[in-house]
Amino acid sequence: MRKVLFGIIITLLILWTYQLYKRYDERSKYLKENTALIQQEIKNVSKLVVTEGHFSQVFNYKQSEKIFANLLTTEKKALVVVNADVTVAYDLSKINFNVDQENKTLFITDIPEPEIKINPDLKYYDISGDYLNPFNANDFNKIKNQVNIAIGKRVDNSNLKSNAENRLMSELSRFYVLTNTLGWKLVYNKEVINTPEELQTIKN
To answer: Which neighbouring-strand residues pair with 87?
Structure first.
């Protein structure tokens, strides 16, 4: 009788151990599948979020220079019409993140800064200069640099960057929807994101 009871106990222990292992194995596979899904989703949105704008402006370029011990003053000038295409982009492949399988948490640790590209088309009119102070390549480079600075300031004062940031948030909201659906948490800068609306504040 003791042998029978001992055999039953051993059998029950084996079955219990097998069930525990099976549950652990299934949970481990489930976590790995979810982790792979989250990583794939991040990879899918790793593209540039781009907003485009167009700016036009007219520049008057003037430069005076004294020569011959300040006895003479030479002057050169140009009228420049600028049409510039500007793009504001986020390279989402540069997002830094960590996935904590055990605690079912996606940590976004860093979001890239926007990349601003200015492509100006410059047309020159009324270019004039003195024989002793002619226009040269250095003048054209100066004008282009001044144009880029001026257009950059106009971009800062426009809604182009905020529009790009809104598009960025719409992409990041996909992470919240995915993690929430899987029962995971989304954390940015040590703060748990509980609603898609909270994503609107993470870049401000």
So the answer is: 52, 117
